[in-house]
């Protein structure tokens, strides 16, 4: 299982994430649903690859499937997912070694992503201890926790450590979650719609932070979004997903400027573009109608 | 796990191939899947529940038709006969009465009380709960306060008190059990109506100019009642248990027939010599209540809507 | 926080007051003459009149209620007809027995039901779990008086391991405790399963798993940490309810607690005793409820720190 990636570009080192013929089938009461249908892509160091699609297209399922976070009794995975050279589809146990170490997740809704009865500090320290990057010494863990919160630009980190999730805003919580993700010094970040639950102004800050961290550390990012503005801003490559498979893949510029399929054009027209980042919204003359068209294009809704 | 065996590495082209790839879902995986297990568990609960319930309820319903001795007919020459002797399937009690006949006729009374109590508590609970949820304001405050207060009352003690003071007649016991049970229905109905009230069809009906009470009765309650009836089975099980506890403590009806709790309490004195007088009526209660509870559980867990799928 | 406690205390005392008042009204509404049950069926009219005068039963109901309220606040509810002793004292002497039984039962319940519920939640709807699930349904479907008699026959008569009745030795505690616990274990373990299943599906658990948190920590620290509040509440409420008298089980095992006392008081229409029992048990139940309310902040930071977002 150590075949070289079939990528068109030249890369000196093997890919951080190599996904080949990846399939996710969900066994539900309504029958077997193929939520992800043989997708192929790879991510190298310092790259951001975006999967874009509307809700129900299977993009989040792809991310969760790669992390093996879908319940075993619901999802059947097949194909190959090489994380740092290890196939986590063939060896389900292998995922335990990469989660919280080389691989980290930034979840969709920060408001529900932290345990409400445990303090920020205790959940962050736990991540630090699992990663094993700092010594197990209490003060060292605390010092590292404070440093991580500083890195994600959280003011007065000492104070925040004692707080509980309900005391922080969504944007702050997402920063905490990014800090928790960073605790393990990951090489690959999976960001599952990291900004969709946040206000537009807060979104910009979070994306800014992700870009900054990527620049500093050369992390590979798998970005899941329905927002073309987000995709355009931070991606190297884009895969457009519909009904579980990629309908269009390619360089961000190429996909945005010369969309090859009707679906991508609808998506482009439907998604409003982030204000502060692009003053001239791209061709959203009839956003509502286009959104409706894009939404009715697919029947699948198994997210 | 045979996931990787079944995965066929397709030609890794730069563009995704559109040929449908084979499914990795095997029969074994489907059998182990959560959805399948849930469906099977619900199915088995329904089956076992139906069998247990019917085994008890059918003979009870047919008690008059079955060739049984009279439940109150005493025969001092046939006292405390063991089961299966002289045609007494469950044996006889200390006065020579046929135990099976007593259990079945007593069961008719128990079941009648249970069903009546559930109907009464269901009616009170749905009306008050719906009113509290729909109208809000002072109606809600009053109903919620009463619910809260009753939760903290020493319930069984109060029920015993009422029965002891007003006599163990069927209407009194039914009323007492209904009073014990209505809060559960009311709370459930209230919370469901609160959700239902915010739905678009309610504002649509309001825009059409329907009266508030008309909206509540014609539109909201029908939507809620289906879910509310699911708890009816569980309430029936509770009612039967509560009635048997009351009659065990001497607060059960005597006429026309002694109910299950009383039969067991009568047999208690003879437990060392005549085990069947307590054991068998108890097993009948357990069988029926288990059956009803399983039915309720199974109905709740059953997949909501069966779709035609692969 | 102090306001909250005071409010709960006020509500609790109001409930107690309403309860004893309801009992007062019920007693007066009921048909039958308590004087007859006190003096016996052979008493003469004169004797009955004397009894009525002695207990104030010949006065108008409102006046009786006024006297009752005065008694209530002085803590002296009169003399028990059947024990010929102050009613409050009779009940207080029985209270420790009920308290012992309820404590033992709730401890056994917690020790068994929580691990059992977690076990079920970790393998929902498998064959093994389905078997245990049906057993818990059976546990909540067995009438406790019947379970009690069965245990009594089995383990006190046929195999004489434990005493059949009363509380002469600690062994006497075993069978009544088990009888109560069977029902409570069934109810609580099913609740633990429900809560844990919901928490296993919660987003924060998936996120915790994504950062490499292992199985035991996911189960106990996260899922249990978040299920603890409702489970603790349920245990506390059940305990409070038991203090109102585990009537049936006390009767079956001739346990000298308030449960068997109230049955006797009802049989003999011993009104002062009924009132004293209702008053003391509901006061105790309110106290336990208050302790539960006080313990909430320890378990739930959202209660401790207020709901408002600080950032």
TrEMBL record, chain A:
Keyword annotations: ATP-binding, Cell membrane, Membrane, Nucleotide-binding, Transport
GO terms for MF: ATP binding; ATP hydrolysis activity
SMART domains: AAA
Predominant subcellular localization, coarse grouping: membrane
Compartments it resides in: Cell membrane
InterPro entries for this protein: AAA+_ATPase (IPR003593), ABC_Ni/Peptide_Import (IPR050388), ABC_transporter-like_ATP-bd (IPR003439), ABC_transporter-like_CS (IPR017871), P-loop_NTPase (IPR027417)
Source superkingdom: Bacteria
Protein's membrane topology: Peripheral membrane protein
Entry GO terms, CC: plasma membrane
Family listed: Belongs to the ABC transporter superfamily.
Protein name, UniProt field: Putative ABC transporter ATP-binding protein
Organism encoding this protein: Arthrobacter globiformis (strain ATCC 8010 / DSM 20124 / JCM 1332 / NBRC 12137 / NCIMB 8907 / NRRL B-2979 / 168)
From TrEMBL, chain B:
Region (Disordered) residue spans: 1-21
CDD domains referenced in this protein's UniProt entry, alphabetically: TM_PBP2
Membrane topology: Multi-pass membrane protein
Any one annotated GO CC term: plasma membrane
Residue intervals of the ABC transmembrane type-1 domain: 107-296
Main location class: membrane
Membrane-spanning parts: 46-66, 109-135, 155-180, 275-296
Protein name (Swiss-Prot/TrEMBL): Putative ABC transporter permease protein
GO BP annotations, alphabetical order: transmembrane transport
Keyword line: Cell membrane, Membrane, Transmembrane, Transmembrane helix, Transport
Lineage top rank: taxon: Bacteria
Automatic annotation (TrEMBL), chain C:
Protein name as it appears in the record: Putative ABC transporter permease protein
Signal peptide: none
InterPro entries: BPD_transp_1_N, MetI-like, MetI-like_sf
Presence of keyword Transmembrane helix: yes
Domain ABC transmembrane type-1: 95-292
Family, per entry: Belongs to the binding-protein-dependent transport system permease family.
TM ranges: 12-30, 97-121, 142-162, 168-188, 239-258, 278-299
Coiled coil stretches, renumbered: none
Entry GO terms, CC: plasma membrane
Topology class, membrane: Multi-pass membrane protein
PANTHER family assigned to the protein according to its UniProt record, in alphabetical order: DIPEPTIDE TRANSPORT SYSTEM PERMEASE PROTEIN DPPB-RELATED
SUPFAM superfamilies in UniProt: MetI-like
Alphabetical list of Gene3D superfamilies matching this protein: MetI-like (1.10.3720.10)
Main location: membrane
Annotated CDD domains: TM_PBP2
One GO molecular-function entry: dipeptide transmembrane transporter activity
Keywords carried by this UniProt record: Cell membrane, Membrane, Transmembrane, Transmembrane helix, Transport
Location of this chain's protein in the cell: Cell membrane
Native organism: Arthrobacter globiformis (strain ATCC 8010 / DSM 20124 / JCM 1332 / NBRC 12137 / NCIMB 8907 / NRRL B-2979 / 168)
């Amino acid at each position: 299982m150590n075949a070289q990636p079939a990528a068109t570009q030249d890369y000196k080192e093997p890919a951080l994430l190599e996904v080949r013929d990846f399939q996710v089938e969900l066994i539900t009461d309504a029958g077997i649903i193929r939520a992800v249908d043989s997708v192929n892509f790879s991510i190298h160091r310092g790259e951001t690859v975006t999967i874009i699609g509307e809700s129900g297209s299977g993009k989040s399922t792809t991310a969760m499937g790669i992390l093996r976070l879908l319940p075993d009794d619901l999802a059947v995975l097949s194909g190959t997912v090489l994380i740092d050279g290890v196939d986590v589809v063939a060896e389900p146990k292998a995922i335990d070694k990469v989660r919280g170490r080389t691989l980290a997740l930034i979840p969709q809704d920060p408001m529900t992503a932290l345990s409400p009865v445990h303090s920020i500090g205790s959940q962050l320290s736990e991540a630090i201890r699992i990663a094993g990057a700092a010594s197990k010494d209490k003060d060292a863990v605390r010092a590292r926790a404070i440093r991580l919160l500083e890195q994600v630009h959280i003011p007065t980190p000492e104070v925040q450590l004692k707080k509980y999730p309900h005391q922080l805003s969504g944007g702050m919580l997402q920063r905490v979650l990014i800090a928790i993700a960073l605790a393990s010094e990951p090489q690959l970040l999976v960001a599952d719609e990291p900004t969709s639950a946040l206000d537009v102004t807060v979104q910009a800050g979070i994306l800014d932070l992700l870009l900054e961290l990527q620049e500093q550390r050369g992390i590979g990012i798998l970005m899941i979004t329905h927002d073309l503005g987000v995709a355009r801003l931070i991606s190297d490559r884009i895969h457009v997903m519909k009904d579980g498979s990629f309908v269009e893949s390619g360089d961000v510029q190429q996909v945005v400027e010369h969309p090859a399929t009707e679906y991508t054009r609808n998506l482009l027209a439907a998604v409003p573009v982030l204000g502060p980042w692009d003053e001239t919204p791209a061709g959203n003359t009839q956003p509502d109608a286009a959104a409706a068209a894009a939404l009715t294009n697919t029947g699948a809704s198994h997210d | 796990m045979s996931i990787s065996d079944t995965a066929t590495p397709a030609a890794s082209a730069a563009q995704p191939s559109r040929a449908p790839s084979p499914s990795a879902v095997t029969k074994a995986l489907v059998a182990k899947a959560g959805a399948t297990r849930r469906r099977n568990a619900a199915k088995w609960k329904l089956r076992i529940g139906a069998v247990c319930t019917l085994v008890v309820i059918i003979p009870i319903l047919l008690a008059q038709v079955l060739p049984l001795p009279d439940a109150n007919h005493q025969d001092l020459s046939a006292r405390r006969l063991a089961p299966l002797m002289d045609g007494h399937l469950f044996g006889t009690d200390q006065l020579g009465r046929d135990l099976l006949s007593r259990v079945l006729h007593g069961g008719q009374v128990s079941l009648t009380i249970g069903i009546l109590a559930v109907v009464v508590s269901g009616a009170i609970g749905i009306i008050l709960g719906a009113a509290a949820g729909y109208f809000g304001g002072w109606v809600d405050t009053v109903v919620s306060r009463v619910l809260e207060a009753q939760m903290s009352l020493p319930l069984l003690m109060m029920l015993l008190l009422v029965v002891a003071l007003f006599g163990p007649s069927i209407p009194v016991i039914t009323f007492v059990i209904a009073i014990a049970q209505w809060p559960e229905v009311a709370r459930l109905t209230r919370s469901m109506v609160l959700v239902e009230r915010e739905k678009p069809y309610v504002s649509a009906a309001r825009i059409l100019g329907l009266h508030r009470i008309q909206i509540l009765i014609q539109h909201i309650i029908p939507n809620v009642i289906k879910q509310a009836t699911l708890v009816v089975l569980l309430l029936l099980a509770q009612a039967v248990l509560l009635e048997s506890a009351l009659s065990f403590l001497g607060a059960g009806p005597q006429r026309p027939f002694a109910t299950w709790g009383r039969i067991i309490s009568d047999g208690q004195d003879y437990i060392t010599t005549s085990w069947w007088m307590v054991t068998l009526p108890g097993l009948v209660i357990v069988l029926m209540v288990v059956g009803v509870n399983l039915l309720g559980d199974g109905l709740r867990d059953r997949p909501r809507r069966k779709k035609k799928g692969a | 926080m102090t306001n909250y406690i005071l409010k709960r205390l006020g509500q609790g005392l109001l409930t107690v007051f309403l309860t004893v008042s309801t009992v007062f009204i019920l007693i007066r509404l009921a048909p039958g003459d308590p004087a007859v049950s006190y003096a016996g069926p052979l008493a003469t009219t004169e004797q009955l009149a004397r009894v009525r005068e002695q207990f104030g039963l010949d006065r108008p109901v409102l006046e009786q209620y006024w006297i009752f309220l005065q008694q209530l606040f002085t803590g002296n509810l009169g003399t028990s007809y059947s024990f010929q002793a102050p009613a409050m004292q009779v009940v207080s002497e029985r209270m420790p027995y009920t308290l012992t039984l309820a404590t033992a039962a709730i401890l056994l319940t917690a020790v068994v039901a929580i691990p059992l519920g977690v076990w079920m939640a970790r393998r929902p709807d498998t064959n093994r779990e389905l078997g245990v699930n049906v057993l818990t349904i059976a546990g909540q479907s067995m009438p406790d008086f019947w379970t009690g008699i069965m245990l009594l026959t089995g383990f006190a008569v046929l195999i004489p391991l434990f005493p059949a009745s009363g509380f002469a030795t600690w062994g006497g505690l075993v069978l009544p405790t088990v009888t109560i616990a069977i029902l409570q274990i069934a109810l609580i373990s099913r609740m633990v399963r429900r809560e844990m299943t919901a928490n296993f599906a919660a987003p924060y658990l998936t996120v915790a798993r994504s950062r490499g948190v292992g199985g035991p920590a996911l189960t106990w620290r996260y899922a249990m940490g978040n299920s603890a509040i409702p489970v603790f509440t349920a245990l506390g409420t059940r305990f409070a309810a038991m203090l109102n008298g585990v009537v049936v089980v006390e009767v079956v095992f001739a346990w000298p607690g308030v449960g068997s006392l109230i049955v006797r008081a009802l049989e003999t229409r011993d009104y002062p005793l009924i009132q004293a029992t209702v008053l003391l048990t509901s006061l105790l139940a309110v106290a336990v409820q208050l302790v539960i309310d006080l313990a909430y902040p320890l378990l739930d930071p959202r209660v401790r720190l207020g709901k408002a977002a600080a950032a």
